[in-house]
Amino acid sequence: MKHSETNDSAWERKLTRNTKQLAFWTGLWVLTMALANFGSIFIWPDDKLWSFLAILLNTLVGAAMILANRRQLQSLDEMQQRIQRDAMGVTLGVGLVLGLSYSNLDVANLIPGDAEISVLVIIMGLTYGLTTFFVGRKYR
Predict the structure, then answer these.
(1) Interacting residues of 21 by C-beta distance below 8 A, sequence separation 6+
(2) Which of 15, 87, 107, 123 is the most exposed place for a label (fewest CB within 10 A)?
(3) pTM listed for this prediction
(4) At which of 75, 99, 126 does a domain end?
């Protein structure tokens, strides 16, 4: 029994560490996204080099966030992995189908204004959150 408890606590420590790393990289990605979006307005007006560097930094931090997400997912137990996989699969499908439909509405001038990526991000976030909640309830 003691060996199992040791393995369980080691798994929990690894999961906690991976979750904290994911939170760190996600937070840093959000900050670099804000820098890339607002830096050219408030910090370096009309300097394309700084804008490019901020976008490059955001992309590199985003890549690190993706790797941290992968590590965190790999450290989950089988049921948690299945819930995440289901939620990600539904989110990918909804994002692709609705995103392209939204773009087509814009191309055909059937919506006022331009299609904005922020709308798609909100839809995907809501889809992921709701799917995680409902799939998680299914397995309880």
Answers:
(1) 68, 71, 72
(2) 107
(3) 0.85
(4) 75
